[in-house]
Amino acid sequence: MKIILISFIINLTLLLCSHFPTFIHFKHFFSHSRSRADVQTNTSWNAPIIWDGMFDPDVFDQRHKQDQSTVALTVFAVGRYLDAYLGTFLNSSEQYFMVGLPVTFYVFTDVPEKVPNMKLAPQRSLKVIKVERHSRWQDISMMRMKTISDIIESDIRHHSTYVFCFDVDQVFTGRFGSEALGESVALLHAHFYNLPKHRFTYDRNPKSKAYMETGDFYYHAAVFGGTWQSVKAMADACYQSIMEDKQNNVEYLWLHKPSRVLSPEYCWDRSIGYQKDIRVTRLIWAPKNSDTLGELKAPGAKKNSFNTNGRPTTCLQGS
Ligand code: UDP
Ligand code: MN
Question: For the region Disordered, what residue ranges are annotated (predicted)?
Answer without folding.
Answer: 300-319
